[in-house]
Design brief:
Blueprint (H helix, E strand, L loop, with lengths): L3 H33 L16 H17 L5 H19 L12 H22 L12 H30 L7 H20 L14
């Protein structure tokens, strides 16, 4: 039998791990490719076709595997993590085409579908699952964490909505709006998981990992 406090620490460690991966990914991809190729790409997904491919694919697959094996609490929590895990791996192994419209290949279409599902599930975690509590009266810090989940969830939804809008507007490619929107959404996801792992606004004493 595992001690309850060990299980709590294990959950918190895993959540912090996926949070760090999500938060660091855009910074590492952008900075790494600027140093090596001196180029700012159109989107986070576009780094598949750069010198940072292994970092991009490896990180997305690592996040996917974590989510697939994340047990959560309720059946809805587990189902959402499985969906997100499959989507994260799908985003990694089905790249967007290089230099042609995303819908010009089957791989690009699958990538688009998986990406929408992935960010949609990320928003669901922030706005629904993470805000639940086992305690009848959540602690003050839990209420503050819930505020972080709300903000990060709204940011993810906002970015998800804005991406097709800027694509339709057109003429903004030189500003790389899709890259920055995807990067902001990914960092928001990472911050939410770091908060869930209590690396941010953690309780002073070990307790429920809700």
């Amino acid at each position: 039998m595992h001690d309850a406090s060990e299980l709590v620490r294990s959950y918190l460690f895993l959540r912090r791990g996926v949070g760090l991966l999500g938060t660091a990914l855009p910074f590492v991809l952008i900075a790494g490719n600027l140093l090596i190729e001196k180029e700012l790409l159109y989107s986070v997904s576009g780094y598949y076709h750069s010198s940072m491919r292994d970092v991009y694919v490896g990180t997305m697959c690592a996040i996917g595997v974590f989510l697939l094996f994340y047990r959560g609490y309720a059946r809805s929590d587990r189902a959402a993590s499985i969906v997100a895990g499959v989507a994260a791996i799908g985003v990694a192994i089905f790249p967007i085409p290089d230099g042609t419209p995303i819908t010009s290949t089957a791989s690009g279409v699958l990538h688009l579908v998986f990406a929408v599902v992935l960010f949609g599930t990320f928003a669901y975690f922030c706005l629904v699952e993470f805000r639940k509590s086992d305690a009848p009266q959540p602690t003050a810090r839990k209420r503050r964490r819930n505020q972080v989940y709300l903000v990060t969830g709204v940011i993810i939804v906002g970015c998800l909505v804005l991406v097709p809008i800027v694509e339709l507007i057109g003429g903004l490619d030189h500003l790389r709006p899709v890259l920055w929107l995807e990067a902001v959404a990914t960092v928001a996801f990472g911050v939410a998981w770091l908060t869930k792992g209590e690396a941010i606004l953690g309780d002073h004493a070990p307790g429920s990992v809700r």
